[in-house]
Write a structure and sequence with these properties.
112 residues; Transcription Regulator spoIIAA; two-stranded parallel ribbon
Length: 112
């Protein structure tokens, strides 16, 4: 899985560098984010700007990660969500739960 992590302004950023975030990749993705949460990171940003397609398993995974972060007093936000991905988030109701920002700079600003 092509994934990078970075830390900017006290926020852990996970950049998904895959056009499709689907089942075979989800375990690596979830493990990476969970390890950040377990390491004490409480401000997490998932940059999905390279992702053009997700499936329902991905939506479930994002919701699980959101709950994991919230359970320890953390916040998980999404940035750079493409239209097709945003449609999936909206159709499944996940858009009502997950905080979505158009790009990384606006998402980082929202943490202040």
């Amino acid at each position: 899985m092509n994934l990078t992590t970075d830390r900017v302004q006290g926020v852990s950023i996970v950049r998904v560098n895959e056009p499709r975030l689907l089942y075979p990749l989800l375990s690596d993705f979830a493990a990476s984010v969970t390890s950040l949460i377990n390491a004490g990171e409480r401000r997490l940003l998932i940059d999905l700007s390279a992702v053009t397609y997700v499936d329902s398993a991905t939506i479930g995974c994002l919701m699980d990660l959101h709950r994991e972060a919230a359970a320890v007093g953390g916040t998980l936000k999404l940035a750079g969500v493409q239209k097709r991905v945003e449609s999936m988030l909206t159709m499944t109701g996940a858009r009502d739960v997950l905080e979505v920002h158009p790009d990384e700079p606006s998402a980082l600003k929202s943490f202040s």
